[in-house]
Records
---
Amino acid sequence: MKPIDQTRFGNPDGNCFNACIASILEIPLEDVPEYIAEAGNYYPKYNKWLEQYNLEILWMRFGHDVPNGYAILCGKSDRGLDHAVVTFKGEIVHDPHPSKVGLIEGTGTNWDIFVMLDPSLHIGSKVTAKDVTDAIQKGFESEVKPIWERGKGRKSNV
């Protein structure tokens, strides 16, 4: 996860949700499409776009299980607006708003979790902690690819 801050604020123009997606995927904010401001259910559009990363977003009601990894938590900010933050194992690890205040406690409405579409694309492409350490020590950080890059070009058995 690479923290990226939102650049627009308020409803409906704010881009906190896109900043959360960009942070989790470690991509530039401008690479995330602007679907959230559109009327209606924006999840199918985001999911179509996320296919290139072998991912989709799954909406999960807050108050049930806590996602066991990175997720987006939606709720209310102290500014009285709907807001999104990045969590890891249920703890806020990045608020894309410059205030870094997070959400008002008890206002969480839903988790947006990332689900891998085809896990078989990543079989045999595991990067270990030692691989990461070795690459950093050698100064070749670019050799360690995000998980969705490691399986690119492989054909699924499905």
Note: Residues 140-144, 154-158 have pLDDT under 50 and may be disordered.
---
Amino acid sequence: MHRTNHVPRNTFWMQILSWGLGALMTVGSAMAQERVQPPAPSDAGTRPSTIIVPIGGTRPLQMKPPQPITQAENLNERVLEVRTVQNTPETVLLLGKDAGTSRLTLTGLDRSTQTFEVIVQLDVDYLRSRHGQSCRGYFGHLGDGQRGLGRQRRRCSRRGQ
């Protein structure tokens, strides 16, 4: 009978042995390399505090700990306006002008800086309260005997009022 396996058995075991030795050499050289210390954490990597300001609304802002603010840098003047408060150098007023975001950096008297992410958006609670007042104000002066009043009142009540 003729041999059916054309690969000699010695070649198979030699390949297994060479793969194993190659893996050991790779792991050994990786372990022998000098370990690099990770960089120390810095303030540049910290995430800024988030403040929400309604469109057309104002929010006072102070540094922590409170100290006089010497400079305020606003990156998006279209969205946010920053004003100083008279006789209170520790406080600035944030005025929401248009929907969007801005980054605000405050510099204190001791040259420390604090960065804030300011989000200017619609004040949903204010809109809900105004919607309820407008429904009651518009339909409140009509008497119950007038035509079409029931349908208008039902529309207003479906919206949550």
Note: Residues 128 and 160 are 9 Å apart (CA to CA).
---
Amino acid sequence: MKSFYFLPLLIIGSLFFENRPVEASIKLCDEKTLSTKKIVSSYKPNVVVVNAADSSGSGFVIGHSNNKTFIITNKHVVDSNKKVWVKWSDNSSDNGIVIKSASNSEAWKEGIFVNDMALIKIEGIRGNPLPIKLENELSGEDVIAIGTPLGYDFTVTRGIVSAVRDRGQIIQTDAAINPGNSGGPLINSSGCVVGINTYIYRTEEGGQGLNFALSSSRILKFLENSGYGFLQNNLNNNYLVETDQNNLKNFEIKEDPYQNTFLGNRNRFEKKSKIKTYGAYSIDLNNVDIDRKHFENYKEISFTTSFKKNGYKSDRNLDIICGAFEGDHLRYSWEDSSWKRTQSNSDERYMLKAICKKMMNSQRLFSFLESKGWEKYGKSSWVDTNGWKQWEGNNVDFYTNYYDPNHSENSTVNAISVNCNAKSISFLVFNFGGDDYWNNWVSLPDPYDLIVYDKCN
């Protein structure tokens, strides 16, 4: 079973950027390579420990306004708490209020992290805003991270950008991650914030963890959508300060006593099993996942999971395409096999219906579609607005991918077409018993009329 651990970045290790002499008046994020010593000295007073009722992590200052200081962190650090306690590097503290969370930010509980952000406000002016890079960092670039793993406040580690994923929303890094550093900044060699350290992904079998941060472009989009994009405007006074050895006293080179050890309450972040048995088959309903490979290839929603038969774990996965939510339209395969239809009253049918009921309307699926750039209309209609194509030889008809688990009791739709002259719409019905087909053009009320309007105007 795959498990997700929200483990903050443990910042332990040697300082790694080239130690060139740097003038004290050089600005951060000015495309000049700075020594790690200068970056750390400049960043440390602006990185904080964020303590909530039953969790803690890191955060950093992103702006000031109306005699208030604004700090960004991960949603899973503050969770549902509205009040937090913020500790600074000089051991002073402030009370903070969580004022904004990203849309669908609760999806971190389902393993979707692109919206795992929250904004904290404190009274008064504290620290200096850290500059967030306008464009995403490139793979291979050096990065450092500052944060507060348990027992080691304000420490530093190194790494590189391993990859930029999910349409630029996620940065993969080889920096080690441990509890306490979620919400801290990932910084490039010019002193730009390029991400928020967020989570590690690894399997229960002990495979090497993959470490991820939310990208700078994703941070800026969250701030803009929340009405706080102005906080990053005019950071003209964001200059480096001279290195103060007292300012670096906690940035020691230490052996990591927590190597390969989970710090904190694992149950808080690990998915619990929910084993269900259907005749000869048993599955963990909490281990069902979206089939991302199938989606990328076909833009079609399907699900995948491991399973046991007669008590023995299969070496294949079960793949599922769900039909109409209340109907019996279900299709499945045993990984790489041809799609099959379920038979009435069969073990497979009961098992697949349980999977479809859990996943078709799940927040996890909706957050996944949002992360892929799809837009939601009405209660549950999702449109691939970046995928509109024009019908060949026709300049008024367009089509794109579509998903709505509640479309009809009798049919499932996987594409939609609009006619801009007639202001009408047609659906590609997913026919589980034969070829898919387009239904007749119809004029429908909200949200379908809004889909037509957005495309044709």
Note: The longest helix spans residues 347-359.
